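Q: Please design a sequence for this.
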């Protein structure tokens, strides 16, 4: 007789909790204006809520924390490496593809700028580790990849490179990458929103000037009418 394994509800429960956290993030973002001003994504807000809830649960009961990790959020560590591919593959899904000439004319400058920033981060960090951090403080060479993985990539990219970091015996690089990604997210969001609001207030944004010109034209048309 062949024993049939009972189906597990862990994947379904885990997915349901992710959906609940995302819905909570959307609800908080819709109700709290400062979150919209800061342009914090709903996924980030929901993740913070989940992190706080998990830490409170761990402080309440260690067994409850183990149950949470082993039964309710099982499989989350394997999702980023998969979902990162899904995100980038579907970026242009359903969009009309321009000709190569038009594509290069529109995206060429941005592509060059993006590559300059991307490889510039790797070059600057590698030089700093090779010249200063490595010889003086004994920092491993793989530390040079932590800042680019966190700042340029983000939490999902760091999680997707977990296996590579562990293969080269630098498992602590995963935690450092999460720190870099968190700092990059917070600083980029707060500083970026502050600069955007300042530029909007000073009328430096092209979209704001166009809207102002359109309002003036509409007002003039109404007066002439």
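A: Design:
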């Amino acid at each position: 007789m062949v024993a049939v394994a009972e189906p597990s509800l862990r994947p379904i429960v885990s997915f349901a909790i992710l959906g609940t956290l995302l819905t909570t993030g959307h609800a908080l973002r819709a109700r709290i204006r400062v979150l919209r001003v800061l342009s914090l994504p709903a996924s980030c807000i929901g993740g913070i809520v989940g992190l706080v809830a998990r830490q409170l649960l761990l402080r309440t009961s260690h067994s409850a924390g183990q149950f949470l990790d082993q039964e309710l959020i099982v499989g989350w560590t394997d999702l980023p490496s998969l979902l990162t591919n899904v995100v980038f593959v579907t970026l242009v899904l359903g969009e009309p593809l321009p000709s190569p000439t038009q594509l290069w004319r529109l995206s060429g400058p941005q592509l060059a700028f993006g590559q300059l920033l991307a490889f510039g981060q790797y070059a600057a960090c590698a030089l700093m580790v090779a010249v200063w951090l490595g010889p003086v403080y004994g920092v491993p060479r793989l530390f040079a990849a932590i800042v680019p993985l966190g700042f340029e990539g983000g939490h999902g990219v760091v999680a997707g490179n977990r296996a590579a970091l562990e293969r080269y015996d630098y498992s602590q690089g995963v935690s450092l990458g999460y720190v870099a990604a968190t700092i990059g997210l917070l600083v980029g969001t707060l500083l970026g929103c502050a600069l955007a609001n300042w530029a909007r207030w000073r009328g430096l944004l092209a979209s704001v000037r166009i809207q102002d010109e359109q309002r003036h034209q509409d007002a003039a048309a109404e007066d002439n009418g």
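Q: Thanks. Anything notable?
A: DSSP finds eleven helices and no strands in the chain. The two ends are 89 Å apart (CA to CA).
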